[in-house]
Fold this protein.
Amino acid sequence: MKDFAIRANKLKKIYSSEFEKIVALKEIDVEIKKGEFVTIMGPSGAGKTTFLNLVGCLDRPTSGKLDILGCDPAKSNEEKLCRIRIEKIGFVFEDFFLISSLNSLENVQLPLIFARNFKNNTNPETLLKRVGLDHRLTHFPNELSGGELQRVAVARALVNNPQILLADEPTGNLDTKNAQGLFDLFRELNREEGLTIVVATHNIRLGHSTDRIIHLNDGKIEQDERLVK
Amino acid sequence: MKFFVLAYKNLKRRKSRSFLTIGGVAVAVAVLVCLLGFNAGYQEALTSDVDKMGYQVLVTAKGCPYEAATRVLKGEAGLKFIDEDIYKQIISDPDIDKITPLLVQLVYDPEKSDGKGGFDSYSGIERSYMELKPNVKLKSGEWFSSDDADEVILGYDKAESIQKKLQKTVGDKISIPGEDTNLVIVGIFEKTASLEDGDFFLPLKTAQRIFEIEGKLTSIGIKLKQIDRLQAFEERLYPIASIQVISMSQVKGTILNLVNSAKILIMSVAFIAIFVAIIGVINTILMSVFERTQEIGIMKAIGASKLDIFKLIWIETLIICTLGGIFGSIIAIFGGNFTELLVRKVMPYAPGGRLLLITPELLLFSFFGVIIIGIISGLYPAFRAASMRPIEVIRSGE
Ligand SMILES: Nc1ncnc2c1ncn2[C@@H]1O[C@H](COP(=O)(O)OP(=O)(O)OP(=O)(O)O)[C@@H](O)[C@H]1O
Ligand SMILES: [Mg+2]
């Protein structure tokens, strides 16, 4: 059991508004091992973002069981979810979502402000060096290219030494070369640190460079493809 | 990096808006400080003015007692005259400790105020004047050589301006505009910080002769042996039909009452200023919260708790209010002179001392007042920001 980073049992998510109910995830069963590098693929509206948000403790499931490194988000209060997000999970978004008033270094330092007594972190400068941006420490987001922005975002996601890195279409705004570079970086982190990585993407070629592809469609797992190297 | 730095950086991002909001707070603080400072200062200045006058009781011709009193306080003439005989009649009253006759006359000087023209006040006095006024002393020169000499003693400020304009001082001769007589300056009074510093003082008889009002006075200043004998004293003077007795403490009370009603008006203006400043602060912070919906969502996604976001927004509000408080205090200290000028124009009677008393306690009080206001006005925007949900925000960004 300790082997699993993420385990979902009949995981269900319904978005209900005044007028309708949208079932975004229909009782999904999935297990992701520690140290796995997994891609989630599927057409738009398949539920990829929904799944990542549940795993990332940004949202709560409607029903079903979810186990993230031994924690159950359904049974945790807001404060606890916050701790999980800070201590165990790093998030990377398609739109980078850097804070425009802060430079690269400060953006990477930002999660440390919220971490309070949690001190298991990596030096932000070391991290930026690691993602190849040691010459861009004092640049602001509007002075950086898309590829550089996403690498700052990755550094920010890693500053609290998370065990799981979640990336929602991280290459959506990048060209082919930068997209490949980012996946290479992911692979390196996965190999060297044993980081569990879950990436949602539309890019089949990039998906095939990972360990496993989970095909989602209409809220269900259509195919769970393990790639042998 | 700390919350404070983060909050500061955000305020810096919208420089002009933050600056205007801080300005609004600063104005509100400045108005408050000036107002409260005025409150304390006016009362003190008026009291010291009345005390410096030395009289507890003033005898004048019948008329409006408060008009008479303020005119005397201001060193103005325009009063009806009383007969010198009355002075002689009451001088032996058993309750009187000290008594002095006064004749105040205004003379128009076309050269005054750089040719704009204005009135100068000439007071006819006797030696007893100096006994009644505890802080009137000769700075240089000496008292009149005789009680009808063509001599003049200058108030401190008047002496300075004459020295500067005419290069004349003790021993020199000056003339009264419109009169033939020349007067020798025999002495200069020390500064009393009252309006009399700007006056000319002549021997009473000389004044009566020059202004051709022999045997007349404008008022009689009296200090009683015991102030609680005032009523008995007043009753004894009652039969003299042409005069009235004015007690200065009464006058003080009446002036303060008058000022109080004006103060209520100004207070309401101050409250409006503070109210507008609060709305301004809330508006600025709320706007920046809404503009940063996405950013706040991101911070939550990377681990910020509700409390963290609350703190962040709250600190921004506090920075605005603190800076506003500091600038407001500076404005109050340096703009106080301007306010004083304004107050002197609109107030029924403005005493000679400083009207605005800005003490450290007052500044501290206003400063903490504005911080408390900041704490309160930051609550709502901070609460709004804290309750934003991260996924909605991130979704809206996609
Ligand atoms: N907050 C929400 N409220 C209502 N419906 C939602 C909400 N979020 C997602 N949905 C719906 O749930 C379904 C799954 O959405 P989700 O964002 O998970 O898809 P996705 O696979 O990430 O798609 P894409 O590739 O376009 O990002 C969609 O039909 C979407 O409209
Ligand atoms: Mg999506």
About this structure: Residues A 15, 22, 24, 42, 44-50; B 395 surround adenosine-5'-triphosphate (ligand 1) (CB under 6 Å). Chain B has a mean pLDDT of 84. The longest helix of chain B spans residues 248-291. Residues 3-48+255-396 of chain B form one domain.
